[in-house]
Description:
heterodimer; A: two-stranded antiparallel ribbon; 8 strands; B: Aldehyde Ferredoxin Oxidoreductase Protein, subunit A, domain 2
Amino acid sequence: MTSKKKDIKPIWIARDLSKCSGCRKCEIACSLSHERRIWPEASRIRVFMLVPGAEFPHFCAQCEDYPCVQACQFKALSISRKTGAVLVDNSACTGCGKCVEACPGKIPHIHPRRNRILICDLCNGDPQCVKVCQAGSWNVLKVVTRESGDYAYKLYARTPEEVTRDLVVKIYGDKGECFL
Amino acid sequence: MIFGYAGKFLEVNLSTGTFKDVRFSEEVLRDYIGGRGLAAKILWDRLGSNWECVDPLGPENILLFLTGPLTGFFPGGRICVSGKSPQNNGVVGSTVAGEFGIELKCAGYDGIIVLGEAEKPVYLFIKDTEVEIKDANNLWGLDAKQTVAMLTKKCRELLGNHYPHKGLWKEPSILYIGPAGENCVRTAVVAAKWTHAAGYGGYGAVMGSKKLKAIAAKGTGPLPEVADLGEVNTLIQEVCNSAYKNELWRRWGTGFGGYSFGAKTSSEPVRNWQEEWHDERSFGGDRFENRVWVKNYWGDFGCPTTCLKLAVVKSGKFKGAATDNPDYELQAYLGTNLGIFTPEENVYLASIIDDLGLCGIQTGNVMGFTAELFQRGILKREDLDGLELRWGDAEAFAILARRIAYREGFGKILAEGIYRAALKIGKMKGTDLMPYAVQVKGIGVGAHGIRSGKDYPEIYSYACSVQGGDHTSVACMPIDDSRSELMTIFHDSGVYCQFNVFNIESTLLFKFYEAVTSLKLTKDMWVKTKALKILQLQRVMLLLGGPDFRWNPETDDDNPPRFYEPLPSGPFKGNTVKNAMFEEEKRKYYEMVGWDERGLPKPETLKRLGLKDIEKVLEKLR
């Protein structure tokens, strides 16, 4: 860890949403890793199914300008220099929801039992959701190096409604939007 | 409390609009586990003494939605639907895939017990332990896709209004009925998503009789605690690794079967089982894959296999029809059994059946029966309200399916399911039509024939099963065989998908059960005592039957007459079930499961299993 520290670059989870099988193994892995329980509603990555067949994982896109971090009045959110993830200081978070409002995709959500926000922390550089998605070769999720250049990661911060609207057309064709 | 359970069940009385929590003793949960086993126990305790008088479509029937301790943990989430079946007047454990069972357990309930009937259409809304009966007038009459869309929107609004600071709510999980269930059609399903169905048993009709359009559940808690989380994780991994190695199964699911079970094993229903062989390469799994698949892997909670695929018709007159790619059963029953041999027509018909909330197997069975009567001139165009029901005419079958779902014209008779329809039409025509009804004790036989001897069911598998024609639960010897329904009872009582257990040792299932619950259970203990006990309960309720008829095991523990006709074509031409051999196997099976020569559970069997209270009721059958 210490000797390799300089080589560690921030990462990003590339996503190919239309391939999502809806197996929700990412939710299971995330909640097991963070909560030691299988707990879909406490998972930092959540699979939405607003239209059957158009399931997809909804989780932090680590926007270039981190609007959520800026919106927090309690300094509960910070950016991990190591991974680029948004980290939550649980002792400072009041569960006010300002970060949810600031997020273009309305991605963060409050923990179902504790009054604090849940945001993907990239598992300190080793995301468990990606592992299970790769193990079953669905390959919806893939870890890539986060580049500082032209990539607009923020485009992936979309609301579930927006994502669904696109996916139904991709999957079901021109009739897709009738299913919303 | 035993690990793996939420600890309580929700009892809803729709007649009075009241709720209460119900708890079962540890002893009951140890013996009957959950799902199908517990359903048999609940139904026996509450309705057993009066079973033959209970109308499956009356307010006195009990509708059950039960998880098991393994639900959510064992890869492939399901829930078991049960009650007195309007198809066979017995008890069928009918499971459906999806997240409903997981949401329910996360809400704090192991199951739902529905009593009575509502005055007006309602749906049940469950958010953790807050439960409401909501008006469903706007939902009544909607098809599958419309119901899911409207209810998803409505429930997310409800959640958002009740709990505004949560951020965005994920959709709840929904079980519902389509128009067929609303109209109490006996081949109606309890559905999930657009296409998942608890089909066998006909519980969609029971839901409709109670005017219960849907149940939506959102649970925000974790799944219950397990005895040994580390071990559970290890075992989940083992099941997944085994599934990942089975790539062809993952790739095609059962959808390779529409061709293979016809061409290779010759055990696929073709034109109402007049044949079981075809060599139609037009119906190959590769063609479905290349022409209609729009998603190659689709699955449910925790599933490593994701054997489902989504399909959309891309060209021709059925363009735009969307559903999950027909699995083998629907390729057969909404394809070959109706003389249909193209992916497009098959997907189109499956999408209609799904939208209407009908069971593809049971409806395909009764439609095939009707088409054969038309072929033979027993039914004429005027009998069928002007419909020319020719083999291969997907549009004609789609029209017939709609008439069944809405009980219009001749559809009203077919809506009674294969057995009752055959009796009724036979009476109308003054002739015995049972030779054309491919069913066992009220349930149309699944699409795996027994004449060629090359498929998995044995010649006595359907005849001796407590779930009749149900291809997911068949009688087999030895009774601890992995195909045996005593093992199926474990899957359907632990409540998980039996499609994830191929290629794993059955001992793993019991290790899994122990890691979740902390209770020791061996296969031997399971098969020889607990499962056998559940089997006797199902058997007795099936034989008690009523109120419209009662099965006689001496005549009804038998194959459909068609299975005694020789196969007319294919590599196994001439093969048939030999009656003498069947009788011998049947008798052997009776012996194995502790039934007497007439097929009634023996007093000593009941005594050994601690089911003495059944003995009194059995007097009615002796």
